[in-house]
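Summary of Year 1 activities. Much of the first year was spent building the evaluation harness for sequence design. The harness presents a backbone, in tokenized form, and records the residue chosen at every position. We chose the following record to illustrate the format because it has been used consistently in internal testing since the harness was completed.
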């Protein structure tokens, strides 16, 4: 399957569509939709009750110490309202299901792997996505809740064949995401070590600071209200140490992998940050905020446009 490119003759707006075979769908089923929401509410950073009015949410799943296990999207299954679907990185599905299963505590919760039944894709236009969400018995289309420049995400509950032709398509999608400075926890954060504030999730509609308690809330809220993270995320167009390595696009196992590369301070063994996985010769970099602006400029590191500099730069 080749990347689809169409031209809207009335607006001359280029549209690019990408399948996302590195994603998977984990279904959380309970006797009622309310029960499913109540199960997920104390586990995730987003307010699950927003699914009443918003068709697609973005959230994070944290350790008790506030470190990132995964980021994910949530939506109601189009055919069964008692199932909340989690759009997760494919290799993380089993690990997430096992961790969440430990939190059931006698609740009637069932887990389903819908990966083989759903085609996940994204459509990006030259202009920000403004189309209204749409839903049928087999599909859901909604703007990406992280940033409208990422277009729309599509969930089609009709499976399609994944072939090697999709590798470059997926590379191009992640390269576009990186240009916008949008992190993907699976590719851009060391497993269970990074904090949400270090990669800017609070600026991407991934955290609701007004909801009740959830796992990892204490550290997350403290950084937001009382202090700053010691690291911040930047876009890097520079050639990274492993940028020429063959891309690992379609993982075949269910074990989380660390795609990051550490940045070591010259002349020491101290780690001051890390590179995320490169796509098409560029990547995201997370590095200490005390690095001087001159050094950042020399390294061609730029803060994403959606992040206020005052939020990360030390005086």
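For this record, the design step produced the sequence shown next.
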């Amino acid at each position: 399957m080749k990347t689809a490119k169409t031209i809207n003759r009335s607006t001359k707006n280029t549209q690019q569509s990408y399948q996302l075979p590195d994603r998977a769908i984990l279904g959380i089923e309970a006797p009622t939709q309310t029960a499913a929401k109540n199960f997920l509410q104390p586990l995730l950073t987003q307010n699950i009750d927003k699914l009443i009015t918003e068709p697609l949410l973005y959230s994070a799943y944290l350790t008790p110490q506030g470190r990132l296990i995964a980021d994910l999207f949530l939506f109601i299954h189009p055919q069964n309202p008692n199932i909340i679907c989690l759009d997760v990185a494919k290799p993380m599905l089993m690990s997430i299901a096992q961790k969440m299963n430990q939190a059931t505590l006698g609740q009637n919760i069932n887990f389903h792997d819908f990966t083989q039944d759903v085609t996940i894709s994204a459509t990006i236009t030259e202009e920000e996505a403004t189309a209204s969400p749409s839903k049928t018995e087999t599909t859901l289309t909604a703007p990406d809740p992280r940033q409208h420049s990422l277009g729309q995400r599509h969930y089609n509950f009709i499976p399609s064949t994944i072939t090697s032709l999709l590798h470059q398509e997926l590379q191009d999608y992640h390269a576009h995401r990186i240009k916008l400075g949008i992190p993907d926890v699976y590719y851009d954060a060391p497993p269970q070590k990074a904090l949400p504030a270090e990669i800017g999730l609070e600026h991407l509609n991934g955290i609701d600071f007004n909801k009740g308690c959830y796992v990892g809330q204490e550290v997350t809220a403290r950084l937001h209200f009382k202090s700053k993270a010691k690291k911040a995320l930047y876009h890097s167009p520079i050639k990274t140490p492993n940028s020429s390595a063959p891309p690992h696009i379609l993982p075949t196992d269910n074990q989380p992998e660390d795609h990051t590369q550490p940045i070591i301070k010259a002349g020491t063994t101290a780690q001051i940050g890390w590179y995320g996985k490169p796509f098409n010769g560029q990547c995201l970099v997370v590095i200490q905020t005390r690095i001087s602006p001159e050094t950042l400029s020399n390294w061609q590191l730029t803060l994403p446009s959606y992040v206020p500099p005052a939020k990360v730069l030390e005086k």
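Helices lie at 33-40, 93-101, 166-179, 185-188, 217-225, 293-298. Quantitative recovery figures across the full test set are reported in Table 2.
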